Amino acid sequence: MTIVRKAEDDYMEEAKEIFLQGGLVAFPTETVYGLGADAMNAAACGKIYEAKGRPSDNPLIVHIAERDQLDLLTASVSPLAERLMEVFWPGPLTIIFRKRPEVPDAVTGGRDTVAVRMPSHPEARKLLAGCGVPVAAPSANLSGRPSPTCAVHVLDDLQGRVDMIIDGGPVDIGIESTIVDVTSGELKILRPGHITKDMLEAVVGTAEHKNTWKEEEGPPAPGMKYRHYAPKGTLILLSGPLERRIAYIQKQMQSGLHVPVAILTTDEYVEYLQDIFPGVSVLSYGSGAVDEAAKRLYRLLRECDDLDIKVIYSKVFERSGKGYAVMNRLEKAAACRIVEV
Ligand code: TXA
Ligand code: MG
């Protein structure tokens, strides 16, 4: 049974009890909704994997409300990590630390490190402070589905598999936190996000993207090897001038094989494209601002699923600043199908 509580409801005692009993609570953060369990309870964390259908070698991020709670998880906080926490916490930055032995393998996938973040969302902060335990929480979607950016997405994926969902409305950022590893003394960005390389470099000097890897070494964050964020249909990213993208889609559609089709564009071109492609679902990332696109991305992919879309053609974004993170998610969702027209 899944109970849904609104942010304004008084849910704290119930939520606390669920954590205490080793159950699962889904809650909003500023990035995406998380599926939480008491991070120090290995059995409870095991339930997260079960509920999501998540591979057991893909570790979880631990969420804390206060800096003091970090001491439960790690005994080694470098000056570099201190500086990052000072500037970016609470907020959408996850930092990898050497773990204490008390942190269960179920959280870390058997690694000797633990990923920690202090979210800024008021509801997340309230829940984390109120329940008093560090909370392990991956995104609250079924493994392989786009991350949830509102409570309905969580319900769609996890009804009956999660004890409580706290509905805090749609999230602000819409893509998952930036993950950094500073355990080597240098800053490596394992997953790009809302906090960009430039923002990190302004604070710590140099940062390096490490979200690609050599086959023989394996990915630095285990989650990177899985096909993430995938819609049910085939997503194709089209780069190049609009008129050529249109010609490409027209040619592809002539075969008539792949209906229904969706096109993801920006507000400016919705009407224009709808006239050219009647019967196609033309959906918008918004004004074209990359923050807005990030916020809408997963919702659009889920909308395509609801419409049973077989092929989705999306515009691309410039791979700089926050666009880098948006393109990272789009490329994963597209399994790297990018066509330069
Ligand atoms: O914004 C977010 O980070 C959201 C919200 C709920 O906080 N959470 C989230 O969790 O995106 P998840 O499980 O979907 O992604 C966690 C990522 C995975 O790619 C995992 O491999 C990586 O974090 N990770 C976790 N622990 C790690 C560790 N010790 N070393 C390297 N990567 C780690
Ligand atoms: Mg996820």
Any overview of this molecule?
This protein is of the alpha/beta class and 341 residues long. Helices cover 34% and strands 19% of the residues. The protein has helices at 12-20, 42-52, 70-73, 79-88, 105-108, 122-131, 151-158, 197-204, 242-254, 267-276, 290-306, 322-333, and strands spanning 3-6, 25-27, 34-38, 61-63, 93-98, 113-117, 135-136, 164-167, 178-181, 187-191, 207-209, 234-239, 261-265, 281-284, 311-314, 338-340. Strands 1-8-2-3-7-4-6-5-9-10-11 form an eleven-stranded mixed β-sheet, sandwiched between helices. It has a five-stranded parallel β-sheet with strand order 14-13-15-12-16, sandwiched between helices. Strand 2 and strand 3 form a beta hairpin. Helix 11 (290-306) packs parallel to helix 12. The protein is globular. The protein starts with a strand and ends with a strand. The relative contact order is 0.15. Residues 138-139, 147 line the site of magnesium ion.
**Oligomeric assembly:** single chain
Strand content: 15-25%
By DSSP, the count of extended strands is 16
Sequence of secondary-structure elements: EHEEHEHHEHEHEHEEEHEEHEHEHEHE
The radius of gyration computed from the alpha-carbon positions, rounded to a whole number of angstroms, is 20 Å
**Helix-strand makeup class:** alpha/beta
Number of helices, counting only DSSP H or I runs of 4 residues or more = 12
Bound small molecules, deduplicated: threonylcarbamoyladenylate, magnesium ion
Helix content: 25-40%
- What is the 3D form? globular
Average of the residue pLDDT scores: 95
Low-confidence stretches: none
How does the major sheet shape up?
Answer: 11 strands, mixed
With strands numbered from the N-terminus, the spatial order across the biggest sheet is 1-8-2-3-7-4-6-5-9-10-11
Whole-Å distance between the termini? 49 Å
